[in-house]
Write a structure and sequence with these properties.
The chain has 359 residues and is α/β, with parallel strands linked by helices. The protein has 3 domains: 40 residues, 434 Repressor (Amino-terminal Domain) (Orthogonal Bundle); 132 residues, Rossmann fold, CATH 3.40.50.2300; 135 residues, Rossmann fold, CATH 3.40.50.2300. It has 12 helices and 12 strands. The protein has a 6-stranded mixed beta sheet, with helices on both faces. Strand 6, helix 8 and strand 7 form a beta-alpha-beta unit.
């Protein structure tokens, strides 16, 4: 049994003391790294704290009775693994200020919950009662257990990621698997049979959803699925260049899906150039974007728009009502991805001119 999950919510200092066979004061001394505890006892208590992912409370009352006036924002994956772009961070700040801050609520960002703890619990601010509602912004691992603890605690919360293994999870997000299906199906219908895919977020729900959508489209069109064509990447430019180069160096690969959403056109171009291919002529590319009607790559045959921000904005509105006990959770918001052809060169040039005049 997973000891981090309890029907009555997070573990308390008294639960730890009972489990270790010591007093609550002894546990407090271990937590605060004070003297006066035998080394063997300290190790036993610390081991239990680690096992159950215990955090000390900083609030005076329980989450269920405290007046809610503070919403927390946290990242379920370290930034070294899943970088948070400045654009997304700014959007989160302004959108949460619009929904919560404008009503007098506090908004707390815990952007690096992994730096100071041993058991890597991104919901530590919730257990410490620093806030009474939570936004989990980012990708979730397939076997994530912290979100289940948050769910079982009964507090208002929202993730920006679906979980196949936990369908009741409160989320406002997009259908990544369908987006991968649409992208692959589009290229197959254009005559491509060997399609490369750049797939970020290894071992996560969104990463695996990309692969499933790609494989499903191949099966629907009677094309054998080749797992080697789905290449895991980080969002580092050098890694993207290398992955593109390796994929399109194979002359049988005639199309590429960049499902990273990083909008890194320079790295795509460089990887294609190193492979001796020409964008739009002997290799077609379909990039993903989080921006409405954005043109990431002029030479792209199409773009896939991921309306994640729009889905999250709607989710925040639902979360605010749940936060104020005006509605019940969990939240269920799911937006479809939109596939569109890339604007023609004349249309693109016109848009660029308008943009330059505005700026």
């Amino acid at each position: 049994m997973d000891k981090t999950t309890r029907e009555n919510g997070p573990w308390t200092i008294h639960d730890i003391a009972r489990e270790a066979g010591v007093s609550a004061k002894t546990v407090s001394r271990v937590v605060n790294q004070e003297r006066g505890v035998a080394e063997a006892t300290r190790r036993r208590v610390a081991s239990i704290i680690e096992e159950v992912a215990y955090f000390p409370h900083t609030g005076a009352r329980s989450l269920r009775t405290t007046t809610r006036d503070c919403i927390g924002v946290t990242l379920p994956a370290p930034r070294t693994r899943v970088p948070l772009s400045p654009t997304m961070l700014n959007w989160l700040f302004f959108e949460l200020d619009r929904v919560f801050g404008s009503k007098g609520d506090f908004v707390v960002f815990d952007l690096n919950p992994y730096a100071l703890t041993n058991h890597h619990d991104y919901a530590r601010g919730l257990w410490e009662q620093r806030y009474s509602g939570l936004v989990i912004a980012g990708v979730l691992d397939e076997d994530d257990s912290v979100v289940r603890r948050v769910h079982n605690a009964g507090v208002p919360y929202m993730t920006s990621c679906r979980m196949d293994s936990f369908p009741e999870c409160s989320s406002a997000t997009i259908d990544i698997e369908e987006g991968a299906y649409l992208s692959t199906d589009y290229l197959i219908r254009r005559g491509h049979k060997r399609i490369g895919m750049l797939k970020p977020f290894k071992n996560t729900q969104p990463g695996n959803a990309r692969r499933r959508g790609y494989a499903r489209a191949c099966a629907a069109q009677g094309i054998e699925f080749d797992d080697s064509l789905v290449r895991p990447i980080t969002l580092e430019s050098a890694d993207v260049i290398n992955a593109v180069f390796r994929l399109v160096s194979d002359p049988t690969v005639t199309a590429l899906i960049d499902s990273s959403g990083a909008e890194d056109s320079a790295s795509i171009r460089e990887g294609v150039r190193r492979a001796g291919r020409i964008l739009g002529k002997n290799i077609e590319v379909l990039p993903w974007t989080y921006s409405h009607k954005a043109t990431v790559l002029n030479e792209a045959c199409a773009h896939l728009w991921l309306p994640l921000r729009e889905a999250m904005a709607e989710g925040f509105e639902h979360l605010e009502k749940w936060f104020r006990n005006e509605a019940e959770g969990p939240i269920e918001v799911l937006y479809r991805c939109i596939l569109r052809d890339t604007p023609g060169e004349d249309e693109f040039r016109e848009k660029q001119t308008v943009f330059q005049l505005i700026t």
